[in-house]
C-alpha cells in the first residue's frame, strides 16, 4: 500500500516539478545564499536583493505563473501593528500543489502538519531581506518519506522560487 502511494506521489510531482527543475539555477549560482550551522540542517536561507514587499510580490507572481495556488499570505508586521507592537517587515506565503500534498498525506497523514509549503520573507536587523523555507529532506525524513524522489523535486522548486524572488534580474 505504501509503495502504491509512493508511486502516486512520484507521478503527481512529475507534472508540478518538471518545469522547476528545468529552469532552476544551481544553488551555488543563487547570489547571497548563506546558511549558519543550525539553519543548514533545518532551513534553507537566501539573502534577497530587493525589499520584502517586492520579494513577496515576485514570489507570488512566480507561483501564479506556475499555476501553483497561494492559500494564504500572513503579514506578521501588519498584524503586530494592529496589536500595537513593532515588527520589521515579515511575511509568510503559504502555497502548494494539492496533488503532491495529498499523495504525501496518503503515504503518511502525519505530514499534514507540515503542509502546505511555506516561504518566510523578512527584513533582518541589518536591513537585508532574508528568505527561508524548510529543508524538505530533513522535514520529510521525520515521517519516513525523505528518500522519495518528489521530496528532492519539492526542494528544487523551493530553491528556484526563492532564487527568483530574491533576484533583481
UniProtKB/TrEMBL annotation:
Transmembrane segments: none annotated. It holds the Pfam family DUF302. Residues 74-133 form the DUF302 domain. InterPro entries: DUF302, TT1751-like_sf. Coiled coil: none annotated. This is DUF302 domain-containing protein. The lineage of its organism: Bacteria, Bacillati, Actinomycetota, Coriobacteriia, Eggerthellales.
Amino acid at each position: 500500500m505504501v509503495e502504491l502511494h509512493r508511486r502516486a506521489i512520484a507521478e503527481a510531482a512529475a507534472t508540478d516539478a518538471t518545469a522547476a527543475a528545468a529552469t532552476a539555477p544551481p544553488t551555488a549560482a543563487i547570489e547571497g545564499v548563506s546558511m549558519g550551522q543550525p539553519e543548514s540542517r533545518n532551513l534553507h536561507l537566501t539573502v534577497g536583493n530587493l525589499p520584502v514587499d517586492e520579494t513577496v510580490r515576485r514570489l507570488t507572481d512566480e507561483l501564479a505563473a506556475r499555476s501553483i495556488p497561494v492559500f494564504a499570505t500572513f503579514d506578521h508586521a501588519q498584524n503586530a501593528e494592529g496589536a500595537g507592537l513593532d515588527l520589521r517587515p515579515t511575511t509568510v506565503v503559504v502555497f502548494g500543489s494539492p496533488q503532491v500534498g495529498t499523495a504525501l498525506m496518503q503515504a503518511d497523514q502525519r505530514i499534514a502538519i507540515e503542509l502546505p509549503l511555506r516561504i518566510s520573507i523578512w527584513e533582518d536587523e541589518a536591513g537585508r531581506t532574508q528568505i527561508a523555507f524548510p529543508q524538505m529532506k530533513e522535514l520529510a525524513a521525520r515521517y519516513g518519506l525523505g528518500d522519495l524522489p518528489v521530496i528532492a523535486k519539492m526542494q528544487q522548486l523551493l530553491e528556484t522560487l526563492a532564487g527568483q524572488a530574491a533576484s533583481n534580474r
